[in-house]
Each structure stands twice: as C-alpha cells, then as structure tokens.
Amino acid sequence: MEMQTENLMTAAQAALAQASEFAVSYAFSILGAIILIIAGFIVAGMVEKWVRRTLDRFPSFDVTLTSFLSKIARYAVLILVGVTVLAQFGVQTASIIAALGAAGLAIGLALQGTLQNVAAGIMLLVLKPFRVGEFVEASGISGTIQTIGLFATEMKTVDGLYILAPNSSLWNTSVTNYSRNPRRRNDLVIGIGYNDDIDLAQKTMLDLAASDDRVLADQEPATFVSELGDSAVNITMRYWTTTADWWQTRLDLTKAAKKAFDEKGISIPFPQRDVHYLPLDSKAQTTSPAKKSTAKR
User: Fold this and answer.
1) Are 198 and 226 contacting, i.e. CB atoms less than 8 angstroms apart?
2) What span, in angstroms and rounded, lies between the C-alpha atoms of 221 and 210?
3) What is the pLDDT of residue 33?
4) 245 and 154 within one domain
C-alpha cells in the first residue's frame, strides 16, 4: 500500500515538473499567442468595418453583397491569425495550409451547385439586371422581385404565388425587365367591319388617346391599318405611357374604344367564314365530261 502511494506521489511530482518545464518553455509563446488572438479579433473587426464603409460609397453595390464581402474580409484575417498562432508553437503551417486547401477543394466539389448559385448571386447583385420591386420574366417564370439573396431570389407572381428561384437559373438566361425603363409603348389593336369608315375609326381612337392624361404628349400617338384580316380591318393605335400607367391605361382605352365605336356606329365584327355549298347535281355535271373523255380514250 505504501509502495502504491509512493508511486503515485512520484508520478504526480514528475507530471508537475513536466508542466512547470512546459510553462517555462512556452510561457512567451502562450503570451504571444494570447496577444495575437486579441489583436487579431480587433484587426478583423476594423477590416470588416473598413470594407463595409468603402463599399457603401458605391451605389452600385447591394447591401447584401457589401455584408458578404465584409464578412469574407473578417474571416480571412482570423484565419491568418490562427495560422500565425499555431506557428508560435512550432506547428508546420505549410501542412495546415495544404490541408485547408484540400478541404476547400473537397467542399467546393461537394457543393458545386450551391457555389454556382453563390457566384450567380454575386453577379446579379453587382450587375443588377433587376432590383427589389421590379417585375421581370426569366426562365419561363414571371413575378415581382421580393428579395435577392446569395443563393436564391424570392419572387411574387401576379396572382400572389411565392416563387423561390435559384440564382443560377436567373443568371444563365435572358431576363426581361418590365419595370426598369421609365416609359413603355403599347399597340392597341381593334378590328372593325369592312363596311365601316376607317378614317372615322382612326380619328376616334386618336381622340381617346388625346383625352387621356396618361398618354404622353411628347411622343404623339399614331394610328394605322395594320392588317386586313379574315373578318375585320385591324386598326392599331400606337402610344406611349409611363411604365407605372401602362397596364391600367391599356385596359381603360380598350373599354373607352368599345363605347366610342358603339356611339358612332362602328362595328367590331365577330370572326366570320364564308361557306359555299355546291349541289350534288352540279358536281355530277362538272365531272361527266371528264368521264366521257376518259371513255373515249
């Protein structure tokens, strides 16, 4: 029993001696590592704030992109501090850097689709083919932009549906932005009967455009016969409005044109088709000479 107690005491004294020797040997390294860590966090915060303030000076940079880049700068400084701290204790940093590179490559291959969405999100935030609140159409979907994230974009359709579109699908396709330009042109096409007065119809449509304040006067409306259809003479009125008034102006002018045409006796015909009936006797008479000539041969 006494031997076991002596062995435990000897082991404890040896461990204490080794700890004291380790503390003495690495005291300066530990102190330097603590100072580096504290200074590293301070410098990382300063770098993050500096990047954020610098990017805020450029209106083209989105808030989401500014936050993303400032966070990257912060973590880059912290990683550099961590490698430097390990070097204080004699750790081979080259192997650590190689391991981090290999891990980054493996993660990149595993998250290839996700990283593609991140890259597309950065490009969308930098080039801004659309902004929050604009109505766009891309990849067969259309809606109002709600949020532009690094991974996906949230949209709301005209009938109130929620759409979450991956950024890569919006970046790798053509985007039609219906809200970007301040003005839009509209071609209002109305068909009238072939027996109606074309000049009167054109004048009526121009009067409607002139009486609507939403139709821009600096780009004068025009009317012309665009097509001689199967059932109607199609008259087109071309006019310009602001983008915000485009849709409602189109609806109001279409309704006003119908009422004005009714008051002036201008018809809007239904689709028509002429059918010619050929009696059976007529068919026999037209085919009999051919039969006779065939018989003569």
Assistant:
1) no
2) 8
3) 74
4) no
**CA 10 to centroid of chain Cα atoms:** 72
Give the span between the Cα atoms of 116 and 96, in whole angstroms. 27
Tell me the C-alpha distance between 240 and 185, whole Å: 4
The sign of the dihedral angle between the CA atoms of 19, 25, 27, 33 is: negative
Q: Which residues of the chain register pLDDT less than 50? A: 290-297
The total of other beta-carbon atoms located within 10 Å of residue 138's CB is 21
| Same domain membership, residue 185 and residue 168 | no
Any domain includes 122 = no
Q: What are phi and psi of 237, to 5 degrees?
A: -110, 120
Q: Please report whether residue 116 resides in a domain.
A: no
Report whether 239 contacts 221 (CB < 8 A): yes
Q: Is residue 119 included in any domain, yes or no?
A: no
pLDDT at 137 (0 to 100): 93
Task: Give kind and range of the element (H or E) at residue 26.
Answer: helix 2-56
CA 165 – CA 130 distance, rounded (Å) = 14
Is the same domain home to 202 and 272? yes
- Are 233 and 131 in the same domain? no
How many domains does one find in the chain? Answer: 3
- Per-residue tokens: 223: 């009317």
Phi, psi dihedrals of residue 140, rounded to the nearest 5°: 80, 5
* Two tokens, residue 96: 């650590």
Per-residue model confidence (pLDDT) at position 178 = 93
Go through 198-221 and write b for each residue having 16 or more CB atoms within 10 A of its CB, e for each that does not. Answer: eeebbebbbebbeebebbbeeeeb
User: How far apart are the C-alpha atoms of 288 and 243, rounded to whole Å?
Assistant: 67
- Furthest C-alpha separation in the chain: 143
- Are residues 170 and 185 located together in one domain of the fold? no
Burial class (CB in 10 A: 0-12, 13-18, 19+), 137: middle
